[in-house]
Amino acid sequence: MNPMIYPTSDTAALLGKPAFAPISLAAGEDMAVFAPFEVLLGSDLATHLRIAMSGPAVPADTPPTIELLAQEPNALGGDPTRIDPRTATSVGTAVALSGGLSPVAARAFFTPPYTDNVYLLTVLVDVPDTRLWLRIGNATGIARDFVWVVADKAEKTRQPWMHVEPAAVALQTVTNQTVRRELRIANRGTGDLVVDGLSPGFPDGPYETAVTPETLTIGPNSSGVLRLELAAGTQAVAPLTIAQQVDCNDPGPFGAAGHNREVALSLGVEMGGPRFRPPPDEFSPKRGPHSNDETGEPGCRVTLSGSNFDGPDLAVLFDEVDASGWIMRHSPSEIEVAVPPMTAPREVHITVRVNGLAAVSEEEFAVVPQPVVEEFEGMRFANMLDPSNTEFTILGSNFVTDVEGRVGAALSFPSVADGFIRLDILTFTNTRMRVKFPQVPNFHRFIGETGFVVVTRSDDGRGELEFFLEGL
């Protein structure tokens, strides 16, 4: 025989309570009337009731009050009888129920322990065809909800009763963003609730979705969380709503506020505009030279930080100057772009445009002119194979720039592997820079005609470097 889960709609109507919902009783309130229940007898001529009470655990001395009423065939019925979970705890302490004709039409007792505010009541029917009624009272100090299950075997009275909140969930976001929502699932029943996903689930689309955990087990008088996630890509998705059902082992019924497993899931993705990170993390560095339009040599490389930086029609501007052709790399959170050719010095705002939507930096980037090297002064050293600590002067213009962007502080040897020497800067003005060779291990690797530097011997036998200025 299948177990009966109460309250049914008929029980709720009898008690004046909402259908498909647990019976809610205020502190100290009893059910208005006795409610009948099916007498499902097993081979032991017993019917079993498992009663679940919601809310915090109660002390052992304050259980709910349980009353039974028995009626034998052709009798008006016996007197209501209270069954105390603290004393009637075995066949030996069972409470006798008069059925109107016989002093013992049935006997009732509880079986501890009472874990999670769940109470197992067994009724032994001594007179065949005896009918039974139940009344529950809330003896605790707060409002409680009650559910009970009747079956011919004690184990079959373990039945879940699921309730999901909220009944509608919106996964609405913008491109390249992730949105997360939670479904809180309560088990108001008498047995474990096992949840294993949603049906029919998310439709296919330009996004990634997840429902976690894959399996969620919730004990009686407990709740758990099912997490929903939608990670949007670079494309918009028109809003849509899908009726979802939480897959679980709850046998039903469903369809009302107190007992449901249906969720209206709406999702949509709008084209999201780019956003800079808050200052001072919008971009780095804060100043540097522009690119050379004639030679194509890129200037200072600026890293922009934010979100929604990836998508069709990506453009970067320094004020009104388009730098899209100078983008080195880009991702949803970063863009590396060289400062485009422009007049300098000047301070500009940086704009990122994606799909016609724009973000403008709050800070200004300082554009400085490209350093120009005109000649060297005192480029002589005693040891041609080791120029360490040799000082000389570089003459030119536009030397006063940010340290990170001061390209005049280094000499390059492109035709030699790893050919890069960074000089120590001693003093500098906008037109004059005094520098010194650092310790250079294996400097002989750089000696020779590399296309940018020629090592020669002077009349007095000392070494001399002749640089092609355009190579610096």
Describe the protein:
This protein is mostly beta strands. It has four domains: 4-157, Jelly Rolls, CATH 2.60.120; 162-270, Immunoglobulins (Immunoglobulin-like, Sandwich); 275-368, Immunoglobulin-like (Sandwich); 372-471, Immunoglobulin-like (Sandwich). The chain is built from one helix and 41 strands. The strands form ten sheets. Strands 1, 2, 4, 7, 8, 9 and 11 form a seven-stranded antiparallel β-sheet that branches. It has a five-stranded mixed β-sheet with strand order 13-20-19-15-17, with no helix packed on it. Strands 21, 22, 24, 27 and 28 form a five-stranded antiparallel β-sheet that branches. The protein is rod-shaped and about 125 Å long. Residues 402-410, 412-417 and 448-472 have low confidence and may be disordered.
Question: The CATH topology of the largest domain, please?
Answer: Jelly Rolls
Shape: rod-shaped
Largest sheet: 7 strands, antiparallel
Unreliable stretches (pLDDT < 50, length at least 5) are 402-410, 412-417, 448-472
Number of domains: 4
CATH top level class name of the largest domain: Mainly Beta
Number of strands: 41
The CATH architecture of the largest domain comes to: Sandwich
Number of contiguous helices: 1
Strand content: over 45%
Residue share in helices? under 10%
How would you describe this structure in keywords?
single chain; 472 residues; mainly beta; Jelly Rolls; Immunoglobulin-like; 7-stranded antiparallel beta sheet; 5-stranded mixed beta sheet; 1 helix; 41 strands; rod-shaped
